[in-house]
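Researcher: Batch entry, complex prediction.
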Amino acid sequence: MRKTFALFFWFALLAFSQAPAPQQPLLVSPEIHADHRVTFRIQAPQADMVTFFGDWMPVGKQEKMTKDEQGVWSVTLGPLPPSIYLYSFTVDGVTMADPVNPRIKLRSRTSASMVEVPSDSPALWQERDVPHGMVAINWHTAKALGGGTRAVWVYTPPGYEKDTSRRYPVLYLFHGSNDTAAGWTLAGNANFILDNLLAEKKAVPMIVVMPYGHAVPFTAPRDQQAKNTALFEEYVLKDVKPLVESKFRTMTGREHRAIAGLSMGGGQAITIGFNHLDLFSSVAAMSAAVPADFETRFAQALRAPDKTNAQLKTLWIGCGKQDFLFDRSEKFSALLTANQIRHTFRPTEGLHTYTVWRQYLGEVLPLLFR
Amino acid sequence: MRKTFALFFWFALLAFSQAPAPQQPLLVSPEIHADHRVTFRIQAPQADMVTFFGDWMPVGKQEKMTKDEQGVWSVTLGPLPPSIYLYSFTVDGVTMADPVNPRIKLRSRTSASMVEVPSDSPALWQERDVPHGMVAINWHTAKALGGGTRAVWVYTPPGYEKDTSRRYPVLYLFHGSNDTAAGWTLAGNANFILDNLLAEKKAVPMIVVMPYGHAVPFTAPRDQQAKNTALFEEYVLKDVKPLVESKFRTMTGREHRAIAGLSMGGGQAITIGFNHLDLFSSVAAMSAAVPADFETRFAQALRAPDKTNAQLKTLWIGCGKQDFLFDRSEKFSALLTANQIRHTFRPTEGLHTYTVWRQYLGEVLPLLFR
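Model: Structure tokens for the complex:
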């Protein structure tokens, strides 16, 4: 009987998913309380065990949820510091996004939900009533990858469309593994962060180019994954850069180009940046998968610190001390220091999450192009 | 033991969700076969019943899935005609998107997954190697709705950024209930449809404006939902139109504006269009939630067919004969006919899905602005 009811409920929701009026009363999840605690709920009357994972929790930990008489499982957690959090439910062994929360984290494979705990005093990453830039999705044929249509997300600053003679410097900004070209916008709020910095005159108006970082399909076998960075470099330089420079009013010359990324994208930014100091004058690596062979691969740059320091206006490395990749950033910084390569190393509190990356972007953008 | 393993599997996936290399071997879902049958799979070893719903199926029907020794449930369906389909799994009463398919249908509340069965001879809605327009996400403060930041998705045709003196006609294009401003792009392929029509010179280059249609929150009680169209009209006319006309090179004058939508958005297009024949010269309603009070509300337009016919260059009504809203479109067309209002009525095969709406958009766009 219960089963029948639950099925009917979902049929009804599906049936009316495009129809005018929603059914009442509706389950609320997530519910953010005034004190920044958050209640998560899922209706799963037939489940034996439902647990919760949020990306502020240690990996592997799951919070138990409890079931009420209506078959709704819930857990209240926090208070959580204002930020964005990714979370998922595991219902009898099946991990899933929150079925009633529209804020889905788009990924290359698995999905999760997002909850934003708003700040009482507007945070840098929060949308404010300031002039907003646009993010344009640009589809194109990825010739360097043998064809196929890909999307590059491109931020243009407020006023871009007004003064059609003005040209802008360009930041190439890469996402992490299992993320998409939409990640820095829809989870990272890169656009709002830059809007807010511009409104406060703390950053230079710039174009931000956000391509899709999986040149090799995310689901391809591991040996093929090893070629991803090299193939992505080809793609960025032969497809993305020409596309952006032909469609948008970019400034040319290395001093007007920076390259940055998080996790996998941080590794890509380091590799492509150091491979092409002729094209990029600043590199930022956030919680980066630093290339394991950096020391041998870029021995030339390490052996000529004066030249490298003259070329690199900004070399910024940030990582959360609780991040599983912290060790890589710390060793990378030590290697640079040992070779007298000027850089900023920012060990911060934090895990491998957008909470940290939003903060880092807010720190990096003001350093660029001035 | 099984439970422990399954949990560990998902912990591992979560842990490495931003890390470089995916685990192997990976479950494949959906798998599209050469004969256009599709296999859907989900790993749910502890589940008692897993069923499948696809939007080509009658509402309420569920296909049974069967479990293999590894706890993977699967079903092979079709062959399906080339198109886009939305689908979901119901695992012991919990309806969810496909956990391994990255193509999630973003909605206002529930989510589903999407599968695209490609056409052997490129369909109009399929991306081709032709010049692509962009879709720009424009954030702004919705003053007519009392504040808050909203996003309007705006398509600009190929070449828009080159000839900065050229101005374009504008189509306002609305989504259905429980959809989002992204729907016409990420599920409807409106951008590719227009790119392809432009490449074939079958449509006029135009700007397409896609706002978010839930002016009243989708989860608000039913009595508040009744005010949605009126509030949305305020929002479109006082916020969206001025935004678009100030940021993009639009042509002004009613002959350069059209209004269209699907389902709830079709109702909105009819209402806003007939309320403002001073602003719009064409109206298209796809599988529309035709306003129940059209006859009384727009009695004036019905009673003056000569004037109305002179104002309305195109009045297009399409609906699938198997759609639960077919009756409304049919009666609407009969009412118009009885009052000698010139229009096109296109009863087609089909349900209430993007399969139909992609087809309709391909039929409507060539009619506009010529």
